[in-house]
């Protein structure tokens, strides 16, 4: 009993350690924010700009949540930009040319994403063609596909209600309600976890720590909601990101599929010898990525209120960079969904802050490129010390 | 010259040859540091011996002042009365039966690696599999487990029921487990922690609609860490940071959690220290006691002779000798392993 208690304490110590590594990323983000706030004389931290920042990062963030799974499993997906552009074009054509309503348009677009995921998954999982090649092929195929189905012209405008997905806001009163619901849900889940740990005879943190943790989380939710409602409310695409982050974090940590992804990325041979169905797992990864690409495509088309031929160009690189800045290892086996979102937020912050300062786009691109290398170097050197 | 476990992948005659080369180098004035788990070799080649334990020098002295038992007790820090905890087992009914089993080379489709072997394993016995490196032992058992890539023919019966196993998943579901000779490559995900590695083959058991019960996972991991005396600072320790012996016990824990009827142990004591070896021998005895069939594949004859109830010798893909432990000795087994009758 004493032994197991010591062990559980050690586990807690370790989870603190992990937090420290995540904290370096959060500190980096805060540092960037402070710098931009000073340089823009406070404009950066205005609620309007923060709301815009959250909206700007949403498409990259949607793609990054799936990209983490892809990279953790030891693959790469170069096609997400083209697929997002293609599915976005499908949505626009259904609305503008065939006058479909918004709901069936969304359903069919998601289905197209699902089919594209199946196609890629088939080649990667069943035919064992490296993901790099398959997705490079898809990147070209669907870039061409966009030109083919749009006949090279911009398709617009879409229905007004379609625009809500990318441009809309949850009204402040409803935003507050959502914040309250999220807080209550967190408390209930936390209490249930605690009860269940006690039932299994596992150690639980002291009540005061538990309560301060709850207060901390609720404060964060309140801060976020507060900033958002002091502009126009929570942007709809940001809400989509939040939901996806919760779902995919849960999938990654608490489902057999999620753990198999990490096992395959960590050691594929050992995963096979442990009875893991690698083919099925790889297939599922690319199905999920296909659907997420379609969601990103819908948000993109809705935000632009148009499908353009260059839509989604190079999005895959932003998504990959976000996942990697957020701690995903290109060798596979490591990476987290919240980390990738943090990575997306860092990239978007640099983008947004430098635009606010009217810095030339060329410089902005150079800085973003350098940040990628520095972030990975910081990650590697902290890991060595740990 | 520093040699770190140079013979762990060599056959006995190759190892002998290597030692000869070292003696020659020594006579030419080359100083050699020879790191090894194999004490016979150490006593054969060394002039002075240094024993390390837990990162500290325990002792360093001329060879003449050591005996093998003294070195072992210095290595584990306590007196080991015997090297092998031999227990008398009572073999029961036949659990696993393999008939006319042939395994082909994955690269050369007509080359037979295992040629038409027949054998059985009984409940409550340790079946030893001896043979030289490359005799086909690993190929045979990883093929039965469904992990070997080469084509196979033949029949496998478990408790009288014929099985068709196409992948490890099916083997595990039927109660067959295989601990590979290369734990880093086939046994562990070193980036993952102790509890995840133990649960890896067994997630179906602790999940509902593929949602994992994390508390059950911790519970099981605690159970096997305690039972197998896995030394780890916590269940959340990455297995890559554990010592070889403890890593091997994590793999063993994974297979025990899968509740096997038959457990293939392929070189389970390779590259681990004497103390952990002894513990693994004890675990094998306990498993047999619980009614698990243990197949023990090893290239080290002393441990085969010290632990098994029955021994099969494989030579170039064929079974070239079967001995009850009472009638077996090192010479007879080596004779069969090298092709004699």
TrEMBL record, chain A:
GO terms for cellular component: plasma membrane. Signal peptide: none annotated. It holds the Pfam family BPD_transp_2. It is a multi-pass membrane protein. Its main location: membrane. Keywords: Cell inner membrane, Cell membrane, Membrane, Sugar transport, Transmembrane, Transmembrane helix, Transport. GO terms for molecular function: transmembrane transporter activity. The chain crosses the membrane at residues 20-41, 53-73, 80-100, 106-124, 131-149, 169-189, 210-231, 237-262, 283-304, 361-380. It is found in: Cell membrane. Part of the binding-protein-dependent transport system for D-xylose. Probably responsible for the translocation of the substrate across the membrane. This is Xylose transport system permease protein XylH. It comes from Thermoanaerobacterium thermosaccharolyticum. The lineage of its organism: Bacteria, Bacillati, Bacillota, Clostridia, Thermoanaerobacterales.
